[in-house]
Specification:
Helices cover 39% and strands 17% of the residues.
Length: 778
């Protein structure tokens, strides 16, 4: 009998051992090998640096910006350990007491409710396993945690974990999280900021300060308390950190300063080296981008597009929700230090509204939106820009009601409650390109209002009609073909007959005729009729050849509509063309990459500025001189605000679909384009002068500080050999006499007029001007 029982026990034990062994083998199937764990490191992608060798972005297969643990502050490491896994430095991958506690809760709930995962287990899950909540996955996680602990040091485990864990709002890893929430590198964050970041790991969406400041602060307090309990900080440090205001980064606009430039670099690298090299090759790319110029370009474009958008009208709230006003009021105001800065753009909920004031709530803080902060609302429009209602005496109750969700900008935080102004996100788009004149270095690229909403890089790939911004090419061609800035063309009614397309009747923007007009004056005031007649005299093909020499690729219309800029160009293309004038006739190929180093430290690409003369220095100077008058006396007058020599040209297309301003100093050229992607009108009178030039001025005021020597007088454009001056009569373009008007004009040697302005000639010009001024357009 005893023998039988013994045999049964042995058989059962063998069966159990076999079952356990089989279960274990089945369980570990698919769990990474020890070598996989030991050798695991994020695949090195491509690092991109600005011109001052500061890292501005990476192209990686994996998300986030990897930083070594030596760059992560000790107080952040302690905050994460204290709140996520206080026994991290002691256990071997598992916390058995926590597992038993969680298991009892799971049994009572009849589902996996509490994970009790250590930092090592969390790392196993996010790096090597799926996120599914099953018993099998949990057991695999435990097995893998043991393997990780055996093959990596605690510091290596923490480094991987802190670079992989998700912090919400698209931020993977501590570096991206620090940038996303506080607008700075992780190495710069303090104790209060570290505690907030550590608190996000458990539930990023729930504890996000952008979603609920109150919950975020409560969670921050929990983290600080855990740090105190673990002996990491004192009671005084806890209280000081908790009371410290958290100056949060503007979530929607603090992340994409370099995005369009980086996308340009990514496309450049992809075309040359392929995707495999970009994302796995460990390249280091050193670019021409100037960080301060780039930031100035982003800021100027955003502000300019918002101003234009406001002129069009208010499209109403961005949303609406049912609210309990009293509850919202009671739950706010607990954190009296306003966690925002003047200029921040935020989403707010309207709680109460009267004719002259609205009470709004954002980031858990109650603030005031006075009527003065919404004075820009002159009309209510739909998304297509159609007017729904006009306001002559606006009341806030006309446009807002409790529960509306709106954009606001922080105006003042000094009083008992913050003061806001009403804002809205523009639908209109734009682009800015800046090129250093002496080198051809691309110093800034902004391809749209918001990269997260639209990655299409309009600065590079948008091809829009150039309008009058193309006219300098025609006038410069004329300077190469016997014309001078003093040459006269009569501004008069024109009709070009066509059986196929009907009659074409070009007209000036002001709908008037100005009679005999010097070319300098015609370009300054962007006279269409003079330009059409000039193009006809020069010849379309000559202008196209000249434009191609400047770097404008086309395609070109082979007809007189080219005079009005009917060709399509990109902002980079036309800005680069203007650089030829600024550079004295030498074309510098636009350059964004200076050199590239491979993973072995070898330089595989090294680009140096190289120029090629494409037009004479005399022609380039005369073009620049006339473009200076566009700024000093004509349509580009807003650029005078720069307070230094500037040459430039506005551009506006039919029905105000496109607005341009391309301008330059001896140091820097910049182009601004504004328009809708769907090519609808920007609105009446939204010309290049009104819609684009203010953006250019705002940008250049900051950008010029980076390229012009500090403390020196602004440099004029140099006058090359072969240029002479003569005093002419501005009325006739001929040499001045004692009784005529006088102005100094530039000429190429050998092109100064030989005739003097006579009284007879002046009277003839005056009569013709008077007669033509009375004619109404056809």
């Amino acid at each position: 009998m005893k023998t039988l029982i013994t045999k049964v026990i042995i058989i059962l034990l063998v069966s159990l051992i076999g079952t356990a062994t089989g279960g274990y083998l089945a369980l570990i199937k698919g769990v990474p090998d020890i070598e996989d764990i030991r050798d695991y490191m994020p695949v090195k992608g491509t690092e991109v640096y600005a011109d001052d060798d500061v890292l501005i972005g990476e192209f990686r297969v994996e998300k986030g910006v990897y930083v070594p643990i030596t760059r992560i502050p000790e107080h952040l490491i302690r905050a994460v350990v204290a709140v996520e896994d206080s026994k991290f430095w002691l256990h071997s991958g598992l916390d058995y007491l926590a597992i038993l506690r969680a298991l009892s809760k799971d049994i009572l709930a009849r589902r996996i409710k509490e994970g009790a995962s250590t930092i090592t287990q969390q790392l196993a899950k996010v790096v090597f396993l799926s996120p599914e909540r099953t018993i099998i996955r949990k057991l695999k996680e435990m097995v893998l945690a043991f393997r990780i602990e055996k093959n990596l040091t605690k510091e290596e485990i923490l480094e991987l974990y802190l670079n992989k864990i998700y912090f919400g709002h698209g931020a993977y890893g501590v570096e991206m999280a620090a940038r996303r929430y506080f607008g700075k590198s992780v190495s710069e964050i303090d104790l209060a900021e570290a505690a907030l970041l550590a608190g996000l790991i458990k539930a990023p969406n729930k504890y996000s300060p952008y979603n609920s400041l109150e919950r975020a602060k409560r969670r921050q307090k929990i983290v600080l308390n855990r740090m105190k309990e673990e002996g990491y900080i004192s009671e005084q440090q806890l209280e000081e950190a908790y009371r410290e205001p958290l100056y949060l980064s503007s979530l929607r606009h603090g992340e994409d300063e370099y995005s369009y430039f980086l996308e340009y670099i990514r496309k450049y690298l992809e075309d040359r080296y392929g995707q495999e090299m970009i994302y796995k090759g460990g390249l280091k790319v050193y670019t021409t981008l100037n960080r301060n110029i780039q930031k100035a370009a982003v800021k100027a474009l955003k502000e300019g597009l918002r101003r234009l958008d406001k002129r069009q009208g208010f499209r109403g709230p961005i949303g609406h929700k049912e609210i309990d006003v009293e509850k919202e009021m009671r739950s706010a105001g607990r954190f009296k230090k306003v966690l925002m800065r003047p200029g921040d753009l935020l989403t707010a909920t309207v709680l109460r509204v009267s004719a002259s004031r609205a009470i709004v709530k954002t980031r858990g803080v109650i603030g005031r939106l006075p009527l003065s902060g919404a004075r820009w609302v002159k009309r209510l429009i739909d998304k297509e820009g159609r007017v729904i209602r006009r306001f002559t005496n606006l009341r806030l109750t006309d446009i807002l009601r409790p529960g509306d969700v709106i954009y606001v900008r922080v105006k003042d935080t000094k009083g008992k409650m913050p003061i806001f102004t009403l804002e809205q996100e523009p639908l209109v788009q734009g682009a800015v390109v800046a090129i250093e004149v002496p080198t051809g270095y691309i110093r800034a690229i902004v391809g749209g209002y918001d990269f997260k909403k639209s990655e299409f890089n309009r600065a590079i790939f948008a091809r829009r009609q150039a309008g009058s911004a193309f006219k300098p090419v025609i006038y410069a061609t004329a300077m190469d073909n016997g014309f001078t800035p003093a040459s006269i063309i009569v501004d008069e009614p024109l009709v070009y007959e066509s059986d196929e397309f009907g009659d074409w009747v070009p007209e000036n923007y002001d709908k008037r005729f100005h009679g005999p007009t010097r070319l300098r004056e015609a370009l300054a005031y962007s006279r269409n009729i003079v330009t059409v007649k000039l193009l006809q005299e020069i010849g379309v093909e000559k202008v196209i050849r000249f434009a191609r020499a400047l770097g404008i690729k086309g395609p070109f219309p082979h007809n007189l509509t080219l005079a009005l800029g009917s060709l399509s160009v990109s902002p980079l293309e036309i800005t680069s063309a203007f650089c030829v004038f600024a550079r004295g006739g030498v074309r510098m190929e636009p350059m964004a990459v200076k050199y590239i180093i491979d993973s072995n430290g070898n330089i595989i690409e090294n680009n140096k500025p190289r120029g090629k003369r494409v037009i004479s220095p005399q022609t380039a100077f005369l073009a620049t001189s006339m473009l200076e008058d566009v700024v000093n006396h004509g349509t580009g007058w807003r650029a005078k605000a720069l307070g230094r020599p500037v040459a430039g040209k506005t551009g506006t297309t039919n029905e105000y679909r496109d607005a341009w301003f391309i301008g330059y100093t001896p140091e820097l050229a910049a182009g601004v384009w504004v328009g809708f992607d769907e090519m609808r009108s920007l609105g009446e009178e939204e010309t290049g002068s009104k819609a684009a030039a203010p953006i250019w001025v705002s940008f250049m005021k900051e950008a010029i500080k980076e390229v012009a020597p500090f403390g020196e007088e602004p440099r004029p454009f140099p006058v090359p050999d072969g240029i002479v001056t003569a005093v002419i009569d501005p009325l006739t373009g001929l040499l001045a006499t004692e009784n005529s008007g006088k102005m100094v004009e530039f000429f190429k040697e050998g092109t100064v007029p030989e005739e003097y302005s006579t009284e007879f000639e002046r009277q003839k010009v005056r009569r013709l001007k008077a007669e033509l001024s009375r004619i109404k357009p056809l």
